[in-house]
Amino acid sequence: MKTKAIFTIKTFTVFSLIWLFASCTNLNEVVLDEVLGDNASNPAGALAAAYDRLGDGTFVDHGGVFSLQEYTTDEAILPTRGSDWGDGGKWRDMHEFTWKSDNAIVGDNWNKLTNGITRSLTAIQSIEESTIPQKKLFLAEAKVLLAYYTYTTLDLYGQAPFRDPMNPAAPLQILKADTQIDKLITDVEALLPDLAEFGEQQTHHGRFTKQAAYAFLSTMYLNRAVFKDRFNASSNFNYSEAAVSGTGTDMDRVIYYTSLLINSGKFSLESDYFKNFARDNENGKELIFAITQKIDYIRNGSNSFAYVCMERNQRTSAANRGTNAACTTPEFYATWNGNHDDPRFNQAYQYGDGTWFTNDGTTPSVPATDIVPKSTNLPWFHFTRGIVAGPQFGPILLASGSLEMVGNRIKVSPLYMEKSTTTRMDFTPSLTFKNSAQAVFAQNEINQGARVFKYEFDPEGGNGNSNVDIPLFRLGGIYTMRAEAYYRKGNSALAMDDLNKLRTSRKRESLYSSAPGKALTSLDATQLYNEIGFELYWELYRRPQMIRFGKFDLPGTAKPVSQPFRRVFPIPQSVIDVTKEFQQNQGYN
After folding, report:
1. pLDDT tens digit string along 114-141?
2. Where is the SusD-like N-terminal domain (predicted)?
3. Which of 92, 160, 462, 562 is the most exposed place for a label (fewest CB within 10 A)?
């Protein structure tokens, strides 16, 4: 859907309103349509359009913000796999640290994020000029959304555009991360009284509530020291600086806001970690702020995070497959050594008749009783969730277009690569590139790399669509932020308590007697760093974490030692060429 369509197509805007305001109960479409009339740019529609930018590829697609926050780290890499995923080198640039100002990923994400800024400004103007009863609430949400898009842009690019929404003749302003971070914090804090409590005034995890703002403020305070001194060569950031408001230091404010969330009683940790990323997570107990996704054939959710790792011969049904793109690196996989029994590492699937698919060659078949929703009786096969390595097993697609069966059960067989048919589908944790500086595999090497199946593959709408809500802030991440803040203040005991709360609250599947995770008995900086990764892998947090811990510049698989200027991305050259107010970031001239 093109951006302009949001303001011209009535049915889309009605849907956006329903999506924005619907929670556990359905609203009346007729009433919404009467309010909307023929003008799709009313305040509610404009606010819905600003929210909608969070989806539509920005935070839900592997080529969106994910590619900047994860493919540049040890958690994810998208190599060229034989004849696939070359694409002019744009994916390899992210991990090899060779991106330039004309890289398509850099440019596309700048456009998405600044479009989010523009939509938020449009919403602010529309709401300010209105007399609607919800004016105060809607205005607060629009302003926090503006802050969120601006913060993300400043995090990634160091600069962001702004124009006074109430003055059409206002000049373009260029905001800088080191000076704007304090204003973003104080702006959001000032909006807290006008935001709704979670679950009140028709709010849910798809809208910015007070609680979502607490999580956002925790994030900003946690990263404030980096914003103010981004290119510090020693990564010796000042985490004990006095907070911009309130009392104490930045870390004290992280502890304050995360504690409000932890102690609120509104959220609780899932004992089944993978429920946070499941097809039916719309009522997830941990979700504080998430992108609501639905397959409704108007604005379909994205299946990208599930689809991107699966091999083309891994089929959840006869109508679905993966794409054999991304994987994790040996470095991140190694952080899990000794922790493969952690409930967050991976999880086998149990079918209704008690059959377990354990992906180890011991399951000859599974029942065909699980059916793809809204399909013509297509059997649904469930792969192991989490981090998946080693030889792979699953159903085979026959020439007839159906899955191979044994009687009325789906046969499970050893799998081979679709585009290298004699190559066993063996997801090796190691990555053996011919040239260690280039993430390029020969065609018979395209099986390599442990895969991340954290987000459930939703087979309902083909390969690309999904009902899985994508968490932006959830309770597990809040515990990691408080633990890090405690640790940086020198209180390792309280930090370990929070990490152990995460570890022991999660439980393994009943195949392993629902055993809880094991508690830590000691904590150092390396363990803290690893524990944050265990909880938050593939959730768009790794790049900021690596910068905070001084690891982003270090060499790794297909990555050289890098200079501090790489901690931000360049302003796209196309923007520099037409907007004289922008100056290129250091190191990219």
Report:
1. 999 999 999 999 999 999 999 999 999 9
2. 95-222
3. 462
